[in-house]
Amino acid sequence: MTTERREASRKTEGGENELQEWSVAARDVVEFVPHAAAWQHVGVVTAYPARLLADQLLGTGMRLVLDFGETLVGKVRLRLESGGESDRPVRLKLLAAELPYEADRDPETFCGGLGRGWLQEELVTVHDFPAELELPHRYSLRYLVVTVVSAPVCRVKLTRAEVIARSAAGEALPPPLPGWDRELALIDAACSRTLRNCMQEVFEDGPKRDRRLWLGDLRLQALADHVTFRRYDRVGRCIRLLAEHRDERGMIPGAVIMKPEPHSSSFVLDYSLIFARLLLEHCLFSGDPELGGEFFDAAARQFDFFRAGLDDELGFHHPGGWIFVDHCRELDRTAPISCTAIWAAEAMAELAELLKRPASEAARWRAEAESWRRALRGSSFDPALGMLRSGYGGQLSWASQIWGILAGVLTPEEGRAALMTLEKREDAVKPNSPYLMHYLLEACRCCGAEELLRDTIRRYWGGMISRGADTFWEVYREGDDFYTPYGSGCGEPDPRNNSACHAWSGTPGYFLRTLPPAEGRGTRR
Amino acid sequence: MTTERREASRKTEGGENELQEWSVAARDVVEFVPHAAAWQHVGVVTAYPARLLADQLLGTGMRLVLDFGETLVGKVRLRLESGGESDRPVRLKLLAAELPYEADRDPETFCGGLGRGWLQEELVTVHDFPAELELPHRYSLRYLVVTVVSAPVCRVKLTRAEVIARSAAGEALPPPLPGWDRELALIDAACSRTLRNCMQEVFEDGPKRDRRLWLGDLRLQALADHVTFRRYDRVGRCIRLLAEHRDERGMIPGAVIMKPEPHSSSFVLDYSLIFARLLLEHCLFSGDPELGGEFFDAAARQFDFFRAGLDDELGFHHPGGWIFVDHCRELDRTAPISCTAIWAAEAMAELAELLKRPASEAARWRAEAESWRRALRGSSFDPALGMLRSGYGGQLSWASQIWGILAGVLTPEEGRAALMTLEKREDAVKPNSPYLMHYLLEACRCCGAEELLRDTIRRYWGGMISRGADTFWEVYREGDDFYTPYGSGCGEPDPRNNSACHAWSGTPGYFLRTLPPAEGRGTRR
Fold first, then answer.
1. Domain boundaries in chain A?
2. Which among A39, A423, B73, B501 has most CB atoms closer than 10 A?
């Protein structure tokens, strides 16, 4: 196995949208072993360095697992040489995978809810040697499982295996900040790697599965990008893509799918409201208000879809259509969506000021936010608990407190107290996704709960690190290795449709690399 | 399914070695049914015309069998459209196959001796629709089995399936001769189609498996080509390829493999001797003696490898290395190889005359042939039987009589009598391959057994036709549907490594299209 980089860095064509490419040779040949303490019960044991493969003859039925040393997104290239005069073709089954479980399980057993088409399987046949193969798709992988379905009598050698990795951000991750311990450094690097791997033609939610530009994910990616790669041009292009795909009502879509031509998909009310915040932060981060001016009215229009659902008491929203907030069927979204609207309206006010629009505009936005805040507090604040309830059923949830803090429906003091109390309340609906966990971090910062913020990063994201993550996962429920929000076709959960590199999980680095406003120095916004 | 031909005919690049291409759309969707009377127990039932596929939504788990109406060699192109907004990739398993059994059996059950790599399997994943796919290899197929491993909820449609067929001979097969019945016309067409499908960059033995230029096959292809496509340029190029890959001793190889660079493979004594006959016939057929002059000495050199094995009695050859004659382990090859040398030496004499070399040369070749003939007759002719025996064990075989007739060791009268008698001799080792069956036809013609020749064509090749063949098979043992010379890895025979379109089986048309010399009008040689 040649370990030298073919080229230090190479750029794909495509002008402003070019990607950087770099080559990563397989590092080790590894073996998977059943292990109760390992994530999803599959442990990884290093067998030997991959460069030794060049001398190894592979015959029919052999199976090799290559470890590229880190999770990468890109093309896979293999070089095969025959062990002598070849009399017949070689056929290989290949499975590219992010996680050991996904790599170790036979795709034939797949019963996940979204479809085996997302498993990264290939079947290749090689007639002539030596052969330089490039597998036909782009993969997100750390492991490549090579099964020799059929080989000539003389057998074959895998003399090179490399990933031509690609990202709009390039290969290098930003160095850790001084004073971090190893855990924080690993968490931060995994955040940067997650973002890097998702930065392709657009900011994708997950480069293995879905691969869409999602508005909710983009806001979190823009936060992470601001403290790492600072590709404001890319963020701006994606904001434009979303804004320009408004539907006939003017609603900004939750996602844009790029192929065959860019088109909208999935209208999600909380995402549409969040657009205001994304737009404001982009103007602040990049120092360029241009997009803010261009899409101010588009952002303002999203609130009409929220207003249309308000009832007479101005406190409850009857959701029509999709409101996400979290992967959680039983979650009452009434309070969280109202809080999202309040928090987004405050962003509109700030944006109006930034754009030097008439002072009355900002005032109007603030007044509306305040009216919604009062109404919600009036209808849903439980003084005995010091927390927000949600909906006619008065559901207690983490989501309501998190969003209540961000919206200022809870005061910082109430917020800190609520966050401390929630841990002990078994009846509170818990967060399910790293997406809502991000907003927990944001709420911590907002109400000055910096210790809880650090503890949460170490416990939740550090928990993924200790379970082998080098990019952060789409789905992580502590203590539940096989949880998937995507259902099953066979009675038992099959988590292989979950992504192990997912945009919305990569924000702890943003908090680690910015200072709390409580210290009076402001954030690095 | 569009039925129009994309272009009537298209030529690949490559100067003198260009191939012609044409498009064939899938004709029918068929179903396989178990049927004891069908070849290999798999019957084919037409379900509906393939053009109706354009309206059919295909979901996960569906399996379709496309029938292209005839066996073809080429690339496969598919067009896939989604049934709505696609939310996930489509994954298809594809299996291209020549015969129903090969198409119907799951490749996972394969246990043939040569390797599953020769099964024409693919796995494709399509992310974006509509998609135009070209499968990555060249296939030999009549059937394409499409299994939908995974589809989006909206499902997909297969709106086009076509083979971009290719051959150096072009699409059209020569029309039948006047007076033939339907069976003879079908046999002749299958011969021409077999040859056409094998005529690629070189004359291949089988376009599904092996795909080599074999000397023994080339001679038979040159006979068939002479009465059909008359691509003497192609034959000449292949003769040159073989002759120019002589080893350091001067031995002409049994085969040339074209990739990555042309190189020799498999030195087979009977094939090397047959080169003389191939060269002579090429000069006669093409009317151009150039190659004859160029490679006369090379052809002559092959006899040294035969002479080196002769013992004192000049009747027995001790074979060193590979002598083929037939797929038959127990066959004693002593008499057949001596006869091959005699028959080839007669060709050398004729070639010497054609090239106007000194008369003494032809005389010397004839004298040597005659000395071998006498020696073999002296040692191996059984006067009580009127047949040749072979080797120290005195084995009785069809091969010895067939080659004895061609070599003139048996007179025409003895030959006719021997061929009639053999049918009743259970102890005579029978032919196993269509290759030796060709030489039976050639022996019939040589000794004037024209009725047996026609009967054999109708019974043996007509037998394949009645079992569904439209190209002739590499392996056909009457009454044994599962015979394979290639062994098994699981205790029961797996005939899926056998080719169903194989060069050496396609010569009946040569005999049907030429007249017996007994009628005094000469062959069309």
1. 10-167, 182-515
2. B501
Q: Chain A contacts of B122, Cβ < 8 Å?
A: 123, 125
ipTM of predicted assembly, 2 dp: 0.91
Measured between alpha carbons, how far is residue B508 from residues A401, A464, A493, B31 in Å? 87, 71, 61, 31
- Entry pTM: 0.93
Nearest to A128 among B91, B117, B259 (CB): B259
Q: How many Å apart are CA B41 and CA B76, to the nearest integer?
A: 27
Closest-CA residue of chain A to B112: A150
Which residue in A60, A118, A150 is closest to B88 by CB distance? A118
CATH of domain B182-519: 1.50.10.10
How close does chain A come to B61, measured CA to CA in Å? 11
DSSP H helices, A39-84, are none
Q: Which residue reads 């988590």 in tokens?
A: A495
- Residue B125 has its nearest CB partner, among A130, A137, A152, at A137
Peptide bond before B136: cis, by omega within 30 degrees of 0? no
How close is the nearest chain A Cα to the Cα of B200, in Å? 16
Architecture of domain A10-167: Sandwich (2.60)
Q: Which residues of A touch B89 (CB under 8 A)?
A: 115, 117-118
Q: What share of chain A is helix, strand, coil (3-state, %, to 5)?
A: 40, 20, 40
Tokens encoding A199:
């930065």
Output phi, psi for B105, to 5 deg. Answer: -80, 140
Cβ pair B125:A115 closer than 8 A:
no
Main-chain dihedrals φ then ψ at residue A443, nearest 5 degrees: -65, -40
Using a CB-CB distance cutoff of 8 angstroms, which residues of chain B are in contact with residue A91? 115-117, 121
Distance (Å, whole) CA B58 – CA B42: 25
Of B265, B490, B110, nearest to A154 by C-alpha is B265
- CA A395 to CA A414: how far, in whole Å? 18
- The answer to whether the CB atoms of B91 and A152 lie below 8 A apart is no
Minimal Cα distance from A209: which residue of B? B88
Q: Using an 8 Å CB-CB cutoff, list residues of chain A that contact chain B.
A: 60, 85, 87-91, 114-118, 121-123, 125, 127-130, 136-137, 149-152, 211, 259-260, 265
Neighbouring C-beta atoms of residue A59, cutoff 10 Å: 14
Q: What is the CA radius of gyration of chain B?
A: 25
In tens digits, what is the pLDDT along chain B, a chain of 525 residues?
333 333 434 554 455 578 999 999 999 999 999 999 999 999 999 999 999 999 999 999 999 999 999 999 999 999 999 998 888 999 999 999 999 999 999 999 999 999 999 999 999 999 999 999 999 999 999 999 999 999 999 999 999 999 999 999 999 999 999 999 999 999 999 999 999 999 999 999 999 999 999 999 999 999 999 999 999 999 999 999 999 999 999 999 999 999 889 999 999 999 999 999 999 999 999 999 999 999 999 999 999 999 988 876 655 656 567 999 999 999 999 999 999 999 999 999 999 999 999 999 999 999 999 999 999 999 999 999 999 999 989 999 999 999 999 999 999 999 999 999 999 999 999 999 999 999 999 999 999 999 999 999 999 999 999 999 999 999 999 999 999 999 888 888 999 999 999 999 999 999 999 988 754 444 433
- Judged by CB atoms closer than 8 Å, whether chains meet at A89 and B265 is answered as no
Q: Does domain A182-515 have CATH number 3.40.190.10?
A: no
Torsions phi, psi of B497, nearest 5? -85, -10
Chain A residues within an 8 Å CB radius of B91 = 115-117, 121
Query: How close A60 comes to chain B (CA, Å)?
Result: 9
Interface of B with A (CB under 8 A): 60, 85, 88-91, 114-118, 121-123, 125, 127-130, 136-137, 149-152, 211, 259-260, 265
Enter the tokens of residue B385: 């039987």
